[in-house]
Design a protein that fits this description.
two-stranded antiparallel sheet, 9 strands, alpha/beta, 9 helices, seven-stranded parallel sheet
């Protein structure tokens, strides 16, 4: 286990959840949190080995699904797979993503489109594919007088509101995801589908590590260097040469709490929006930033 879930409960007993990007970081911590409260999780990740590892660790009949969500056929396949695992689908957490940074004057069309594809188009396709299990099923249940709440949680960022130098593609995609969240909440509200977003500040994940650490991910046949440029980290007051636990919080200037967040704290916010505790919350963007007013997640 990557984290020790804050809460173990029966709040999600009998529910089936899809969590994308669940092989590592926030996605993995979220899968662990949902399973700890009874959910069967479909662990979706580009890395099939990691997905299998997580599904095995969290139990509850959780299963792995490997696929590149930027492939137009994969979101439909994921929904069909998840629906076959349980009795329909109850929760979708769109947390898959990565950075591919460059200043706008040097950014390629491919870089810009890649961020739109994974952070905005993939969640759109996944939600559209899930319409029969969310919108249609929920509407039928409401008409029968037997409402059942379902949850969609989209992971966005403070970058959507404040921008991030060197990551205009990421900020644009995350802004679009907010618009999608609010629209879907309005359209699917009569079906008792709660659609919300979490806007993270700086959360300690492998994507926030310095680029000099040379961690990479392969997407669409491209090898992308992960992390934040060392100069950007230095400008934020971080020492990119410091040897440290990748997921441990670090001091942060400009945050009311004076530090960055952890993947477990990120997962806790997602869990709340995915649980019955948020049945009267929809169309909202919840900042989870320690009181920071900008930054990457």
């Amino acid at each position: 286990m990557l984290t020790t879930p804050t809460l173990s409960s029966k709040l999600l007993d009998g529910k089936t959840a899809i969590v994308t990007g669940a092989g590592n970081g926030i996605g993995r911590a979220t899968a662990e949190a949902l399973a700890a409260s009874g959910a069967r999780v479909v662990v979706s990740d580009l890395d099939g080995g990691l997905a299998q590892e997580v599904a095995g660790e969290i139990g509850n009949g959780s299963v792995a699904f490997a696929g590149d969500l930027t492939d137009a056929s994969v979101p439909d396949a994921l929904v069909e797979f998840a629906a076959g695992v349980g009795e329909g689908i109850d929760i979708i957490v769109n947390s898959a993503g990565y950075f591919w940074d460059a200043p706008l004057h040097r950014m390629t069309d491919e870089q810009f489109q890649a961020m739109i594809d994974i952070h905005l188009v993939a969640p759109f396709r996944l939600c559209r594919a899930a319409a029969p299990y969310f919108r249609d099923a929920g509407r039928a249940e409401a008409e029968e007088g037997n409402p059942r709440y379902r949850k969609i949680v989209n992971v966005t960022s403070l970058a959507a509101s404040f921008g991030t130098p060197g990551a205009g593609n990421y900020a644009a995609a995350k802004s679009g995801l907010i618009g999608l969240t609010k629209t879907l909440a309005t359209e699917w509200g009569p079906s008792n589908v709660n659609v919300n977003a979490v806007a993270f500040g700086v959360i300690q994940t492998r994507f926030g590590a310095p680029q000099s650490a040379q961690q990479t991910i392969e997407v669409g046949g491209r090898e992308i260097v992960l992390g934040v440029p060392d100069k950007t980290l230095a400008a934020m007051g971080f020492d990119p040469t410091e040897e440290r636990d990748m997921f441990a919080p670090r001091p942060m200037f400009g945050s009311a709490l004076g530090r960055t967040g952890t993947i477990q704290e990120a997962a806790d916010a997602i869990f709340w929006l995915a649980s019955p505790l948020s049945d009267f919350v929809t169309g909202q963007v919840i900042p989870v930033s320690g009181g920071a007013r900008g930054g990457l997640s």
